[in-house]
Amino acid sequence: MISMAVDYGATSGNGQKVVLATSSPRRIGLLRLIVPAFEVRAPEADEGPIRRPADHVSAARRKVMSVWGSPGEIVIGADTGVFRRGRFFGKPKDLDEARRMLSQLSGGWHYVYTGLFLVHGDHELSALVATRVRFRELSREEIDWYLAREDVLDKAGAYAIQGAAAAFVAEIRGDFTNVIGLPLGTLYPMLLDLGWKPVVNDAHRE
């Protein structure tokens, strides 16, 4: 059973239906930058335990398979997490855990990994994308200020780089969209490999 299906035009101009297996408004917004027409289906699959970065690819596959409806569809799944010194930082269960996460990410580098999984007919593609992010030293007051501003309980690592936490970032190496949750620089060629073609909007030619 699919708990949510939002139609964003669903079928692209080349007749292919693109489906994004997500309940994340951030991923929806990012995909809309390159795919003007797609459908959103909220996956019901359990993401499973994450012990190492590669587990995000498996989690993305489970999301895709839980919503896949037709061989003619291109279905996209993504799963994102944060690691520092081999330790996984997922979504915090409460504000106390979020505060501890941000304190541990303060003043050093961490990795943001996103597992991608795409299926179209008999074809499956997967990728694991890594981005390095360095936070400057954060005071307790800064962390409390941030947690009072934004809801972080649905965010890996207890922060959103596209929000106020951008002020904490001293340096970033890699794909910025990967940190948000959908690495467009990797996803775009994967879509092309599956036969998807970008649509030219004549209205923008004038």
Q: Segments where pLDDT lies below 50 for 5+ residues?
A: none
Overall number of structural domains? 1
**Elements, N to C (H/E):** EEHEHEEHEEHEHH
Q: Care to count the β-strands?
A: 8
Any overview of this molecule?
The chain has six helices and eight strands. By secondary structure, it is of the alpha+beta class. The protein has a single domain (5-198), classed as Maf protein (Alpha-Beta Complex). A hairpin with a 2-residue loop joins strand 6 (109-120) and strand 7. The mean pLDDT is 90.
Descriptive terms for the model:
206 residues, alpha+beta, Maf protein, eight-stranded mixed β-sheet, 6 helices, 8 strands
What's this, in brief?
With 206 residues, the chain is an alpha+beta fold.
List the helices and strands and how they pair.
Layout: E1 5-8, E2 17-21, H1 25-32, E3 38-41, H2 55-67, E4 73-84, E5 87-89, H3 95-105, E6 109-120, E7 123-135, H4 140-149, E8 169-173, H5 176-180, H6 184-193
Parallel strand pairs: 2-3, 2-4
Antiparallel strand pairs: 1-3, 4-5, 4-6, 6-7, 7-8
Helix pairs in contact: 3-4
